[in-house]
Amino acid sequence: MPGTATTLKRDKRQSKIGEIWRRLKINKGAVAGLAVILFLSAMAIFAPYLAPYEPNKMNSGPRLASPSMKHPLGTDSFGRDQLSRVIYGARISLYVGFIAVGIGAVIGGFIGAVVGYYGGRVDNILMRIMDVLLAVPQIILAIAIVGALGANLVNLMIAVGVSQIPRYARIVRASALSVRGQEFVEAARAIGASDLRIILENILPNCMAPIIVQSTLGVASAILSAAALSFLGLGIQPPTPEWGSMLSLGRQYMRNAPHLTFYPGLVIAIVVLALNIFGDGLRDALDPKLRQ
Amino acid sequence: MAALLSVNDLCVKYKTFEGIVHAVNGISFDIPERGTLGLVGESGAGKTTTALSLMRLIPAPPGIVERGKISFGGRDIHALSEAEMKKIRGNQISMIFQDPMTSLNPVLTVGLQISEAIVAHQNTSEREALKRTQEMLEKVQIPSARHKEYPHEFSGGMRQRVGIAMALACNPRLIIADEPTTALDVTIQAQVIELMRNLRQEFSTAMMLITHDLGVVGEVCDRVAVMYAGEIVEEGSLEQIFEDARHPYTTGLFKCIPDIEEDSSQIQPIMGLMPDPFDLPSGCCFHPRCPSCMEVCRVERPAFLRENGRTVQCHLYAKGGVTQ
Amino acid sequence: MLRYIFRRILFLIPVLLGVSILIFAIIHLAPGDPAEALLGPSATTRDLEELREQLGLNKSLVTQYFTFLTNTLKGDFGRSIRTNNPVLEELLDRFEPSLILAVLSMTLAIAVGIPLGLLAALRQNTWIDTSCNFVALLGFSLPGFWLGLMLMLFFSIMVPILPSSGYGTWQQLIMPTLVLSTNTTAVIARMTRSSMLEVIRQDYIRTAKAKGLSGRLILARHILSNVLIPVVTVAGLHFGHMLGGVVITETVFSIPGVGRLIIDAIRFQDYPVVQGGILFFAFCLSLVNLGVDLIYALLDPRIKAQYRAG
Question: How many CB pairs under 8 A join A and C?
Answer without folding.
Answer: 138
